[in-house]
Structure formats: structure tokens, C-alpha cells
Amino acid sequence: MTRLVLENVTKRFGGLVAVDNVSFTVPEAGVTAVIGPNGAGKTTLFSLVSGFLTPTDGRVLFDGQDITGLAPEKISARGLVRTFQLVKLFEDLSTLENVKVGRHLHTKAGLFSAFLHTPAARREEREVEARARDLLSFVGLQHKADADASGLSYGQQRLLEMARALAADPRLVLLDEPAAGLNGEESEALSRIIRRIADNGTTVLLIEHDMTLVMNTADRVVVVDFGRKIAEGTPAEVRVNPAVIAAYLGSAATAKAAEQEKLNG
Ligand SMILES: Nc1ncnc2c1ncn2[C@@H]1O[C@H](COP(=O)(O)OP(=O)(O)OP(=O)(O)O)[C@@H](O)[C@H]1O
């Protein structure tokens, strides 16, 4: 089964074509990664899928339904949620409360009824709390449940953001550079968590610069460069693809030239 389809998706910002006629599909099972040099258009692609930007052209289908141009909250209510490159947590709330908020956005009664102490609301509140605790255990943060979210380490905040996204029971989760800023050990733990998310039946689509994580975690990889899809396949296939190697070498050469220019003043 196909979870997500991008059909000829294009996004222009004035004269700049950030995403250029990109088509690919994400199967229901497993982990798909989008990789590419800096500025290739990966985050823009995520924003187009999750409704934070509207495509200039093309269509996005989620479980066979056209979601192109829908508002982000409409898309997340359908079961497609995302995390951000820069963590966005409720800093004044505890770790547990952050996950509960993610869950409340999903429950029938919602956040408001949690304040009305009806038996149904109390029952739902207990379920929300139990599920939130399960998710904290899942990402290894159970011992931090009552700590302020703002006091967590950066790596822990990233895990918390993931738990909060999963609290909505999504069918597809988009993870934007989940390993950014993590050390090797944290990154390995993250890879295992991502695999388990997929094994539990939630489709994972991620953007990542950490190639070790991509190679160890993804089943399929889509490569973009200058807004265009230049390759796709298994990790083993794309790592030896000449177009992919050229794109990465090209971007390394550009970065080196820019550095040299800076040094030259
Ligand atoms: N809102 C915007 N307005 C104008 N240009 C934008 C906007 N958002 C992104 N761009 C441009 O679109 C291009 C693609 O950017 P994008 O952030 O999607 O790349 P990326 O592959 O995610 O990069 P990185 O790996 O550095 O995060 C870049 O040239 C960027 O400057």
C-alpha cells in the first residue's frame, strides 16, 4: 500500500524554484529518508506535505486522498504529523504534560473538557496520562516525566518532540533532521526508536544529514539537489549513484570555495 504520493510538486519563492517538479511515493511500511545537500529543498518539501506551505503546482495524496493546500491542523487531524528542525516544545510544561497536549489534540473530548470534571472526562484524562507515560517510556524519557521540558538536554528535547508527535497516533510522521545535534550514542538510540516506530505500523518519512543514521535506518532514500529529485532507491543503491556522489562533492566544493573566499576577505 502507498501512504503518500507526491505528483509533480513545485514550489516557487519569487524567482527561486525551491522544489522543482518532484514526484515520489512513500510506501506504508518502513522508513523513507529524504537526503540532499544544504538548501536542496528538503524542508520546503516537508512543509508542502504538512500544509505549512501550498505548492505552486502539483498534488499531494495521503492514503489516496488529495490533501494539497489543506491547513496544517486539517492534515494532522487526518493522521499526518511532523516535527521541526528547531524543537518547538511548551517550555513551561513538564515533559509528561507536553506529551499529553499532543494526545489531547487527538482525543474526542479534547483539552477543554479535561477542565470539566465529568466522569467521562476523568476517564479520558486517565487514558491520556497512561498513553503519555507509555510514549515517554518508548523514547526512554520515563524518568523525566515530571521535569520541566525546558530543563531537558537538547537530545532529550528532540525525543520529547517525537513522543508528542506520536501521541496523536499518526499514520505518517515526518521527522525533520531528528539526529541534528545528537552525539553518536544518542543517534544510535534514535535509530532504534525510529525503526520501532515503523515496526509498530506508523510510516516514517525523515530528512537527515547524518548518513550513518540514514544508512542504518532507512529502507528507501530519495535524493534531492537544487529542488529536483536526482535519485531514489535503497541506501546501498543511492550511495554508489554517480549523480548523488557528484551532488555531494559539488556542494562540498562550493562550501570550500565560500570558506576560501571568506579567508581571502
Ligand atoms: N520562505 C522562503 N522564502 C524564500 N526562499 C525560501 C523560503 N524557504 C526556503 N527558501 C529557499 O528555498 C531553498 C530550499 O530551502 P530548504 O530549506 O527547503 O532546503 P533544505 O534542503 O531543507 O536545506 P537544509 O539542509 O540546509 O535545511 C533555499 O534556497 C532557501 O533559501
Automatic annotation (TrEMBL):
Q: List each copy of the ABC transporter domain by range.
A: 4-251
**Which keywords fit this entry according to its UniProt record?**
ATP-binding, Nucleotide-binding, Transport
Which Pfam families has this protein been placed in? ABC_tran (PF00005), BCA_ABC_TP_C (PF12399)
Give me the Gene Ontology terms describing cellular component. plasma membrane
Q: One GO molecular-function annotation for this sequence?
A: ATP hydrolysis activity
Q: What domain of life is recorded for the organism?
A: Bacteria
Supply the PANTHER family for this chain.
CONSERVED COMPONENT OF ABC TRANSPORTER FOR NATURAL AMINO ACIDS (PTHR45772:SF9), CONSERVED COMPONENT OF ABC TRANSPORTER FOR NATURAL AMINO ACIDS-RELATED (PTHR45772)
Family according to the record: Belongs to the ABC transporter superfamily.
Kindly provide the name given to this protein in its UniProt entry.
Answer: ABC transporter ATP-binding protein
